[in-house]
Specification:
Length: about 400
């Protein structure tokens, strides 16, 4: 896993009108670091625990780039003294690209992986485009420092991270803030752990919302080891005991920010627990996947549920003993589906199912139901009505 530190550096306003105020920052483990630029303290703190593979520092041409020198041990600062004063002097009017590159090169001898990024803070697209281009494809632990810079910059960077999590393997996210305004003798460092929890809840709930896959969101709600339960549901099994345990645990969630999520999941799992018959559970899953725009799954499930119900109308209880349901039902359809609309509906449903599954359209009359979502929706809804008629 790669550890990526993202910092923003601004201009700052100390007594001389330029640069940040020298501050002693105190971390949760009691360690303190005195520095003007909080990112330096954070880097040194993190470096004691883990390797930082990349440290991206975003700022403008007038940012206090010279303050980064506090990251380096005192023994080596003299090696950078001449360039430090050059950087400090240029910051007032705007540091040149060459000087910033030279500063980065010298700093990298002591801070491996550091990159200084001169940006236009109002170029909002840059933040996300930079992350997409520069973050590696490995699993990532992102540490976001939101202490300095224009107030809107951390917000844009945060939302950019939320977007790129769909394309990058962001495993963990921590946010740090050096609370200068809460300073007594020392300024406390606030690690906003709750953001990481919300990040995980958001990511896993989105997966559940669009695919129906619930083990990840349940894990983030504190309910472990549900992968096999999900697998059994997908295989049209009824893991009743496990579903009861899951719904009971969802009921026991007390934190109000989690209960809404828990209630939504329970509401969608409840029909699978309540429905005794396989075909009823298949219909519930068909409706579930239809609402999530997973049309092929919904189509297969509703077709299979209707064929099971048709077999039962013939008095067949051991439906698994019928090797080829389609052939078995072929000449019995008028006996089961007594109204013309029922026969027409089933014929279209079966044809659409076969065409979608096998990837070809042999009957041109089916074309509209495969190419037009609205026509498919009409077919799906009329098939639900057909199913209910068959139950009576």
């Amino acid at each position: 896993m790669k550890n990526i530190l993202l910092s923003i550096i601004g201009i700052g306003r100390n007594q001389s009108g330029k640069g940040y105020i020298k501050t002693k920052y105190k971390f949760e483990n009691g360690q303190t670091y005195e520095t003007a630029f909080f990112g330096s303290a954070l880097y040194r703190y993190l470096f004691n625990e883990k390797n930082i593979d990349k440290w991206y520092i975003l700022g403008t041409d007038k940012s206090s780039w010279s303050e980064i020198i506090d990251t380096i041990d005192e023994d080596y600062k003299n090696n950078l003294e001449e360039l430090y004063y050059k950087v400090w002097d240029e910051e007032r009017s705007g540091i040149s690209k060459n000087t910033l590159n030279e500063w980065q090169e010298k700093l990298s001898n002591y801070i491996p992986g550091i990159e200084l990024i001169n940006i236009d803070p109002l170029d909002y697209k840059f933040y996300v485009e930079f992350l997409i281009k520069n973050l590696p494809d490995d699993e990532l632990y992102i540490i976001l420092d939101i202490t300095h810079g224009y107030r809107f910059m951390p917000f844009i960077l945060s939302f950019s991270i939320m977007y790129i999590k769909n394309f990058k393997k962001i495993v963990d996210l921590d946010i740090y803030y050096g609370a200068l305004e809460m300073k007594g003798d020392e300024a406390p460092v606030i690690k906003i752990d709750f953001i990481n929890e919300l990040f995980k809840l958001t990511t896993s709930y989105e997966i559940y919302k669009y695919s129906g896959y619930f083990p990840e969101i349940l894990k983030n709600l504190g309910i472990q080891n549900t992968e096999n339960t999900y697998f059994q549901i997908e295989m049209n099994w009824r893991p009743q005991k496990e579903l009861k345990e899951i719904t009971a645990k969802l009921d026991n969630i007390e934190e109000s920010y989690k209960t809404l999520c828990a209630e939504n999941i329970k509401k969608e799992l409840q029909p699978l627990l309540e429905k005794e018959l396989l075909e009823d559970r298949m219909i519930e899953r068909a409706k579930y996947f239809f609402e999530k725009n997973q049309y092929l799954k919904s189509l297969i499930l509703i077709y299979e549920a209707i064929t099971i119900r048709m077999l039962k109308r013939l008095g067949i209880t051991k439906i698994h003993d019928i090797p080829n349901r389609k052939e078995f039902l072929r000449d019995k359809i008028p006996q089961i589906l007594k109204e013309k609309w029922m026969q027409d509906n089933f014929k279209i449903l079966e044809g659409v199912r076969n065409s979608a599954v096998h990837g070809n359209i042999r009957d041109s009359s089916l074309y509209q139901h495969i190419k037009d979502r609205e026509k498919f929706s009409e077919l799906f809804k009329s098939s639900l009505i057909l199913y209910e008629k068959l139950k009576k």
